[in-house]
Amino acid sequence: TDVMVISGVGSVGIGTTNPTVAIDLQAHTRFRTYSEQVGILTIYSNVVTVDLSQAQSFICTATDDISGFRLYNIPTDVTSFTVKLTQDATGSRNVGIDTFYVGAGATFPVYWPGGLVPIVTPTASKSDVYSFKIFDGSNISTVGMFGVIGGQNYG
Questions:
Q1: What are the tens digits of pLDDT across the range 70-124?
Q2: How far apart are CA 53 and CA 21, in angstroms?
Q3: Taking a C-beta distance cutoff of 8 angstroms, is the pair 97, 117 a contact?
Q4: Which residues have CB under 8 Å from 86's CB, separation 6+?
Q5: Which strands, in side-by-side order, build the sheet including 110-111?
Q6: Element spanning 140, H or E
């Protein structure tokens, strides 16, 4: 049966009588178009903070070396996010694309195709696109996430 529920706590459920998040859609979905919030990442002390409650698509310009990325607000279940990483006009910035931390905590594993960590394009004003898939956010410290090279040396 068709079901749509608006709970008393601000949740909407479609196809479910018990929504567990703000919008809980338990049915096939078709969109003609959609848009995403794009987050702008900055470097502070050679580390980039990625807040997954702010966006799932991010732009980062390497204006300094990047030793790693700190993930905050990781959903407990499945999620993904994408980073467009561009070297500034100087270029040759080192980027630790394989070094991710759970917030201010320890690093966790990132798995790449063939087990090969990509080399970030060092050329000035060129961009790389990387996507990351998390299958178990509540255990990311031990199970890690998967990195996908969307493309390199754009621009």
A1: 999 999 999 999 999 999 999 999 999 999 999 999 999 999 999 999 999 999 9
A2: 13
A3: yes
A4: 59, 60, 61, 62, 125, 126, 127, 128, 155
A5: 38-41, 57-62, 79-87, 127-134, 145-154, 110-111
A6: helix 140-143
* Six token digits for residue 52: 């997954």
Tokens 């096939």, located at residue: 28
Q: Give the tokens for residue 51.
A: 């807040």
- What one-character DSSP code corresponds to residue 122? -
> Can you tell me whether residue 138 is helix, strand or coil?
helix
User: Which amino acid is it at 34?
Assistant: Y
Q: What is the pTM for the complete model shown?
A: 0.88
Q: Are 72 and 53 in contact (CB under 8 A)?
A: yes
* Residue 103 tokens, joined: 């917030």
Spell out the long-range contacts of 123-126 with Cβ–Cβ below 8 A and sequence spacing 24 or more: 123/87, 123/91, 123/153, 124/87, 124/88, 124/89, 124/90, 124/91, 124/92, 125/86, 125/87, 125/88, 125/89, 125/91, 125/155, 126/86, 126/87, 126/91, 126/153, 126/154, 126/155
